[in-house]
Design a protein that fits this description.
By secondary structure, the protein is mainly beta. The chain has a 4-stranded antiparallel sheet with strand order 1-32-31-30. Strands 2-3-4-5 form a 4-stranded antiparallel sheet, with no helix packed on it. It has a 4-stranded antiparallel sheet with strand order 6-7-8-9, with no helix packed on it. This is WD repeat-containing protein 41.
Length: about 450
């Protein structure tokens, strides 16, 4: 029997009661990227990129240019003062090409085919007006797709993820290692650039599977064996770490599962997201909330889904959304527990021998700690059932709803039923008013 929480048919706190199914892809849809408040792009294993309207679900453009699956995609807005703002996206593919697309016209702007291996990640550095591609090398490019500089060939599988750091630095994950690179532009007018390796961090025991920037002071990494490390973004020192996500002592309310050993699949940190206060981690089938100030897990749902959680996001309210290989999308609310009075320590062996004072002090310390430490829990408030296969990721569009993509080749737009109903009523009212006005004129 599954230990996953269930929710009844009446999901009072779940606004997503309508859905629009968007078809077009012929294979797994792995990526969604937001272009602006109303548009997004989707990409996956069929090598095609679609641009969509998040309000209506209308397909705006179908972008053909790659011959193999898409491996990375990123928004790339022009910020040149002399030009009008242009919304663009960059895509990388297993065909070893990178393409820049114009989202307004749906046209290919530029294509590069000089890579020795597949580009696995793309990062735009707005402050420096350059972008980076990571694979067997770290390459630095300008907006015209001129190669400014690159690193020497990296070992093993190459760079799997990149994140921007202060002082013109980036952190790159290469297997178990985290490599810090610094970018520098020469002062002369030849636009000469350098990328230098400045430090290697080897604290992880297994391959790094996720990487997230919290703010200009902090970034966080997670590994396949469940390690989470909090790093200082300025001097790259380890600030805190967590390795016992699956330990029952972390969340005493959850019944411990009797297992001989934990497989890496169950403890792998699949995805990380954060706000200024906490890091939210998708670990195996569960989701965990790690408080950065307290340096500990303050809430968790060990079996949030029936299968591995692939993506997690914090909403502007106190809600989280998670999606899983089991095809489900779930909404959670982080709530504070009602505090119970501290249990008195029973008089026993130590009191008999005159250790009562120490016992009393320990009890008072425990009580004080309990009073000062709020406890939280994650409550399931919505369950979105629509996909028939693994949900890869999602985008939150505020009042426009939620977009999800899946291995079933579909994208679903989840809509606030009450809002959509009122919009339809308003449209109908306007039409009736216009018709009435027309009849009066006649």
């Amino acid at each position: 029997k599954s230990s996953v929480q269930t929710i009844g048919e009446e999901q009072i706190q779940n606004p997503y009661t309508e859905l629009l199914v968007l078809k077009g892809h012929q294979d797994i849809v792995r990526f969604l990227v937001q272009i602006d408040d109303c548009r997004f792009a989707s990409a996956g294993d069929d090598g095609i990129i679609f641009l969509w309207n998040a309000q209506t679900g209308e397909k705006l453009y179908e972008l053909h240019g790659h011959t193999h699956k898409i491996t990375a995609i990123a928004p790339f807005s022009s910020s040149d003062v002399t030009e009008e703002k242009t919304d663009m996206i960059i895509s990388a593919s297993a065909d070893r090409t990178v393409i820049i697309w114009d989202c307004t016209s749906g046209r290919q702007v530029q294509k590069v085919s000089c890579f020795h291996s597949t580009v696995k990640c793309l990062t735009v550095l707005q402050r420096l007006n350059v972008w980076l591609s990571g694979g067997s090398d770290l390459c630095v490019w300008n907006r015209k797709l001129d190669l400014l500089c690159k690193t020497s060939h990296l070992p093993d599988a190459g760079i799997s993820a990149l994140v921007e750091l202060p002082k013109n630095c980036v952190a790159a994950t290469v297997g178990k290692e985290l490599i810090i690179f610094r970018l520098s532009a020469s002062n002369n007018e030849s636009e000469g650039w350098n990328v230098l390796e400045v430090k290697r961090l080897v604290d992880h025991q297994d391959n790094i599977s996720s990487l997230v920037s919290v703010n200009d002071l902090t970034f966080v990494t997670g590994s396949h064996i469940g390690e989470l490390i909090v790093w200082d973004a300025l001097d790259w020192t380890k600030q805190a770490s967590e390795c016992n996500f699956w330990d029952s002592s972390v969340h005493p309310d959850v019944q411990p599962e009797i297992k001989l050993s934990q497989s890496p699949h169950e403890t792998s940190v699949q995805h990380l997201t954060s706000d200024e206060e906490c890091v939210f981690a998708a670990v195996g089938k569960g989701i965990y909330v790690y408080n950065l100030q307290m340096k500990r897990v303050i809430a968790c749902q060990k079996t949030a889904h029936d299968s591995t959680v692939l993506h997690i996001e914090k909403l502007p309210n106190r809600q989280l959304i998670s999606c899983s290989e089991d095809g489900s999308v779930r909404i959670w609310e982080l709530r504070e527990k009602q505090q119970l009075p501290a249990e008195p320590v029973p008089t026993g062996f130590f009191n008999m021998w005159g250790f009562g004072r120490a016992n009393k002090q320990a009890n008072q310390a425990a009580k004080k700690m309990q009073e000062n430490t709020p406890m939280y829990f994650l409550e399931l408030v919505g369950d979105l059932i629509g996909h028939s296969s693994a949900v890869q990721m999602f985008l939150y569009f505020g009042e426009l709803g939620l977009a999800t993509c899946s291995a079933d080749h579909l994208i679903i737009l989840w809509k606030d039923g009450e809002r959509e109903s009122s919009l339809r009523s308003l449209t109908l009212f306007k039409k009736l008013a216009q018709n009435g006005d027309l009849q009066l004129r006649l």
